Amino acid sequence: GAVVSQHPSWVICKSGTSVKIECRSLDFQATTMFWYRQFPKQSLMLMATSNEGSKATYEQGVEKDKFLINHASLTLSTLTVTSAHPEDSSFYICSAKDRNSYNSPLHFGNGTRLTVT
Amino acid sequence: AQTVTQSQPEMSVQEAETVTLSCTYDTSESDYYLFWYKQPPSRQMILVIRQEAYKQQNATENRFSVNFQKAAKSFSLKISDSQLGDAAMYFCAYRSLLTGANSKLTFGKGITLSVRP
């Protein structure tokens, strides 16, 4: 089945530093990828839609300068949390849609647990 | 905009028994997808079952089945012969089929299911 690899699975960083999270589709091409944020025991909140070769579309209330998204190829999207602060600590999950399959469900990565100290 | 409502935050079921998880949604669209996802403690998102709105027949996947009531905008998940491994958080999700919707998922708040041995 379709696999989405998300890396790293967990990361600890100091306040003020930046962290990059990668989301790769391993066996399919994805023109669209999605980035979600999830707090413990809560739902997934869509942060942004990543579009290959163009600018990401951010949901209302999500700071685009804070959460930089790059989707430079059909198999890779990255989310960079810039100048991270403790309140950015969360679980981040990506998902991807197979460009060659209109009806296929989204495929999810395993998520990244970010802790900012 | 579409909304997905899961009003029960927690449920418990005895092993081998049957449990039903509720979900309602609101949309003005006539064609769309509905999903149930399972998120165990590992936090991996696992697709449990999918329903196309144009299909009247309820989807079934082994021990998992749905009761899809389009007019009532209801989409409940029934788990039969519950197993300890079914313990997880379950999310109901909606996906528009409109062009430009980019296939993004709208999630409910989720329900935590515990299974008693």
End-to-end distance of chain B, in Å?
A: 41 Å
- With helices defined by DSSP (H or I, 4 residues minimum), what is the helix count of chain A? 0
Instruction: Considering residues with a beta carbon less than 8 A from a beta carbon on another chain, report the largest interface and each chain's count.
Output: A-B, 20 and 21 residues
Query: What's the assembly state of these chains?
Result: heterodimer
Class inferred from helices and paired strands of chain A: mainly beta
Distance between the termini of chain A: 37 Å
Task: Kindly provide the radius of gyration of chain B, computed on alpha-carbon positions and rounded to a whole number of angstroms.
Answer: 14 Å
The description of the largest β-sheet of chain B is: 6 strands, mixed
Q: Care to count the β-strands of chain B?
A: 12
Total number of helical segments of chain B?
0
User: Order of helices and strands of chain A, N to C?
Assistant: EEEEEEEEEEE
Q: Which percent bin holds the helix content of chain A?
A: under 10%
